[in-house]
User: Fold Flagellar basal body rod protein FlgB from Ruminiclostridium herbifermentans.
Amino acid sequence: MIQGLYGKSNIMEKALNASIARNDAISQNIANVDTPNYKRKDVAFEQYFADSLNRANMNDVDDIQPTIIEDKSDNKMRIDGNNVDIDSEMSYLAKNTIKYNALVQLINSNFSRIKNVIREGK
Assistant:
């Protein structure tokens, strides 16, 4: 029982770390909105995570780490070479904050269950 609960915590920890990394990337994007030739950053995690879950070996999940990637797409609306859209970044930040808060609640709930299992075992 405890091992199953711990495994869920490990997966949620990975997702929480990805959310923290994404928050940092979005903050960098917002700070550099007026920097010429700056390319927005994002975090690659969800697709790597989904791919590892589809494989037969679930231990692959332990190796997944959030990776900061640079968005090389051209934004034709700006002539300075910067591809950051402040409105989009603010939207991404709000969405990421909601994800982060949901993950924290899930982790807290998971630890409460673990404490209950330990109490019942006494």
Summary: The radius of gyration is 18 Å. The longest helix spans residues 86-120. Helices lie at 2-31, 46-54, 86-120. The longest strand covers residues 41-44.
